[in-house]
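ok trying again, last paste got cut off:
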Amino acid sequence: MPATSPCVPCCSTPLSVNVPGTVGAGGLNGAAGQSAFTTLTAILTLPAAVGDTVAGVAVADTSWMAYGQTVIVGDEGGTKFAEFKVMAINSAISVDLKLLGYPGSVAPTGTLASGARVSASGQWGLPAPITSYKTALAYNVAGTLIALAAITGGPSVTLTQAGTYVIFACAKIDTIAATANADKTTVQLFRSNNTPAAIANSDASAISVAYATAPTTIGVVSLPVIIYPTLNANDNIVMYAGCTTTLHSTITDADLVAVRIF
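nice, full thing came through this time. structure:
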């Protein structure tokens, strides 16, 4: 009688067993990674105004930089710093930087020491608004539009760099004396330098009626919100006021607020 096989049924497919071979030699080390920052190799003196460019800033390495990139230059303690936009890469060790003037940074004409680190940074959302709030002006409005700032120390803001701004303005208008006459007081924004001119579509008016007593508030006039683009770095915006009947109204409070959006 034949012997009985221990495999019942027998396997039809041979089994393969992988036996590890000898471990091979290690590969070569990869190239060293590139630093995400560099350092100043000379003192950096900031330009005279926000938006100006410092040419030929000396750094140890520009290979990681790109045109249009935002960078921050500062000491390791974070006590002195300033943000810039890369405007040109001149060589492996020289770059042109435009001062952005973000809040908290070193003021124009200040310095950053040799050895300060230069690294990539982000763009600020919106700069701090430029404001001018004036109260207790008591400016008696004459017939012709006249600048409040020139006569009473009224509101005036200087836009600190080229760009596009949103400008908000308002003025509180009172009567001067009892009157039987209606009167229209107009308030408007003007640029007082860089080719002085009225700012289009910025005027607003308040019309009074006969008042038996004075002073009486005619109203708080909100001027239209203005989108104001400029290529200048120092436009000065002021408020003018005038009325149809001389010395029937007075500006008692006035505000100007400008916010750069681009």
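cool. The two ends are 100 Å apart (CA to CA). The chain has a mean pLDDT of 84.
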